[in-house]
Amino acid sequence: MMSRAYPIWNKITSCAYKQSSKSYGVRAHNEIEMLVGSGKKHSKLMATIKQTRKEFGEWSSFHLYLDKKLIRTMYYNKRTGDFRKRKPKNLEI
Question: 9: burial class by Cβ within 10 Å (0-12, 13-18, 19+)?
């Protein structure tokens, strides 16, 4: 099986899988609606989780939102492989 390189990679650990975890890659954005209740028809929305990626030259910015509120941002330099939690000084957005 071939693996692919995705900018966003999600690893899910759940009692629903016989194996310990499943994973999947995302190129630009991902949105998860977390529903709670007693089944598919009898559940209500508890939270929305959104992941995004934007490219700015050699930099990519990654954003994590919970219910439309920005929770965390990270920056990645594709040329140097550098990760940063704060906006790089040379990044013009």
Answer: exposed
